[in-house]
Design a protein that fits this description.
62% helix, single chain, mainly alpha, Four Helix Bundle (Hemerythrin (Met), subunit A), 61 residues
């Protein structure tokens, strides 16, 4: 059971790392804070809570 739980945690960590890496790439290319779907600005409040967010609230829901 513990092995399965650890494997699940590893998948979560890998997904989070991937999201953080993608956010860093958006910072590097100047598109951080811009919705990857519609191009609108991602609100500063959303980025404060989830800095790696690639989508604005409208597109995320």
């Amino acid at each position: 059971e513990q092995d399965e739980a650890l494997a699940g945690q590893e998948q979560v960590f890998e997904r989070e790392l991937s999201q953080i890496t993608a956010a860093i790439a958006r910072i590097d290319d100047g598109t951080y804070g811009e919705c990857a779907n519609c191009g609108d600005e991602i609100s500063p409040q959303r980025l404060a809570v989830q800095p790696e967010a690639p989508l604005c609230m409208a597109c995320a829901s």
